UniProtKB/TrEMBL annotation:
<keyword id="KW-0812">Transmembrane</keyword>
<keyword id="KW-0472">Membrane</keyword>
<feature type="domain" description="Histidine kinase">
    <location>
        <begin position="45"/>
        <end position="264"/>
    </location>
</feature>
<keyword id="KW-0813">Transport</keyword>
<keyword id="KW-0418">Kinase</keyword>
<protein>
    <recommendedName>
        <fullName>Phosphate regulon sensor protein PhoR</fullName>
        <ecNumber>2.7.13.3</ecNumber>
    </recommendedName>
</protein>
<keyword id="KW-0808">Transferase</keyword>
<keyword id="KW-0597">Phosphoprotein</keyword>
<keyword id="KW-0902">Two-component regulatory system</keyword>
<keyword id="KW-0067">ATP-binding</keyword>
<dbReference type="GO" id="GO:0004673">
    <property type="term" value="F:protein histidine kinase activity"/>
</dbReference>
<keyword id="KW-0547">Nucleotide-binding</keyword>
<keyword id="KW-1003">Cell membrane</keyword>
<keyword id="KW-1133">Transmembrane helix</keyword>
<comment type="function">
    <text>Member of the two-component regulatory system PhoR/PhoB involved in the phosphate regulon genes expression. PhoR may function as a membrane-associated protein kinase that phosphorylates PhoB in response to environmental signals.</text>
</comment>
<keyword id="KW-0592">Phosphate transport</keyword>
Length: 271
């Protein structure tokens, strides 16, 4: 069945019905939309309310981490306090990602659109990664089509690129190779990040962009993941009529490719 109109609250589909006939089915989805808004607002409000008490806890825990770092009298407290500090930082990352996801879901379409210099944005993100401790352990190579810009929302595009880059860094063991590409073809523009990390089994691929879905939920909390990164990527891409393709072979590595339609491309190289 092909959708013929997807208005805000009425979903209509045209279904072939007999010889040269079509059946029109209309479904009222206003209740579904209302529930979706309620869920989104609840998550945003709850995350916002948790921010303040957590900031207080993190502040005191950081003070305690400093106090116990060099104190012989408090040596027994050093490990548990450090662990509490790590967990509070993790909780903070989750809350910030939840707020970001709620903002992207609620405000995405209202954000200003502009010409985004994608090669400059990717170059700066890659430099940040090379400077960061974990990124310095990898060989990051870059192949960018100069002058190829996109029309879109800068903060959302940055979320797409930075989440995919930081995943490649996080999941690829030290001394691994990461390759970043940005190019155009007849159909539009593509951004891809390839790594030679552990790869992902095909059974997980369909669920990877769900909120909190992680291939290995037991991974160390300090790895920096929240399970929300690819959900954010998916929403940001949808706002740009973009698509995410994941190509992965266990034991060999993964390639995450984002495709943007040609209407969004500026200064595309003539194919
Ligand atoms: P997380 O914060 O856990 O990284 P994401 O939504 O970004 O959450 O990713 C979901 C899951 O997909 C991750 O937990 C990980 O298991 C898997 N994944 C993402 N990127 C890669 C990658 N480059 N290599 C291997 N696994 C990956």
């Amino acid at each position: 069945p092909s959708p013929v109109n997807e208005a805000d609250t009425i979903l209509m589909r045209l279904i072939p019905y007999g010889n040269n006939q079509r059946l029109l089915i209309a479904r009222d989805i206003s209740e579904q939309k209302r529930l979706e808004h309620t869920r989104r607002d609840f998550v945003a409000n709850a995350s916002h309310e948790l921010r303040t008490p957590l900031t207080v806890l993190r502040g005191y825990l950081e003070m305690m981490e400093e106090e116990t770092a060099d104190s012989e009298a408090l040596a027994g407290w050093k490990a548990p306090i450090h662990e509490m500090g790590e967990q509070s930082r993790r909780m903070n990352r989750i809350i910030e990602s939840l707020l970001k996801l709620a903002r992207v879901e609620a405000e995405g379409l209202q954000q200003r659109q502009e010409r985004v210099d994608v090669p400059a944005m990717i170059t700066s993100l890659v430099e940040d990664i090379r400077r960061a401790a974990a990124g310095a352990e990898h060989a990051v190579s870059v192949d960018l089509e100069a002058g190829l810009s996109l029309y879109g929302r800068a903060s959302e595009l940055e979320s797409v690129f930075s989440n995919l880059l930081s995943n490649a860094v996080r999941y690829t063991p030290a001394e691994g190779e990461i390759h970043v590409r940005w190019w155009s073809d007849d159909a539009g523009a593509c951004f891809s990040v390839s790594d030679n990390g552990p790869g992902i089994d095909a059974t997980h691929l369909p669920r990877l962009t769900e909120r909190f879905y992680r291939v290995d939920p037991g991974r160390k909390a300090s790895s920096g993941g929240t399970g929300l990164g690819l959900a954010i990527v998916k929403h940001c891409l949808e706002h740009h009529e973009g698509e995410l393709a994941i190509d992965s072979t266990p034991g060999e590595g993964s390639t995450f490719t984002c495709r943007f339609p040609s209407q969004r491309c500026l200064n595309r190289r003539a194919a």
